[in-house]
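Private note to self, pasted from the team thread so I don't lose it. Backbone tokens:
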């Protein structure tokens, strides 16, 4: 004779029979899968960020009055990409760092555009 009913408690993912990894985990899994294209990512990050994103960020800084506060952020964003690639970090590190540094550059450019262009304030 049983006096207590034992019920099993399942979480939502167990009741549905499937679990959905978060967006961040899927991104990291994708970045791990890009390890075979590591040299391509290294070349793309160094060329794309060093020759395009950093140059556009520097132009935005210079043409909006050359405020000193933007320079350290632009330099650190480029340096982080260079350091992670020269240290031969795995793609699960270099790809998110690259996207984060692009985000920093885009924020700098957006703030510079919001401040307005002032060519007369440049020292070029």
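Design output:
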């Amino acid at each position: 004779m049983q006096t207590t009913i034992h019920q099993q408690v399942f979480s939502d993912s167990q009741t549905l029979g499937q679990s959905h990894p978060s967006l961040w985990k899927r991104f990291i899994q994708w970045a791990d899968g890009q390890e075979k294209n590591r040299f391509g990512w290294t070349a793309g990050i160094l060329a794309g960020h060093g020759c395009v994103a950093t140059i556009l960020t520097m132009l935005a800084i210079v043409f909006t009055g050359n405020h000193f506060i933007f320079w350290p952020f632009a330099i650190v964003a480029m340096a982080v990409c260079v350091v992670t690639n020269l240290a031969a970090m795995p793609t699960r590190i270099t790809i998110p760092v690259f996207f984060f540094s692009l985000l920093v550059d885009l924020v700098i450019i957006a703030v510079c555009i919001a401040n307005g262009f002032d060519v007369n304030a440049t020292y070029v």
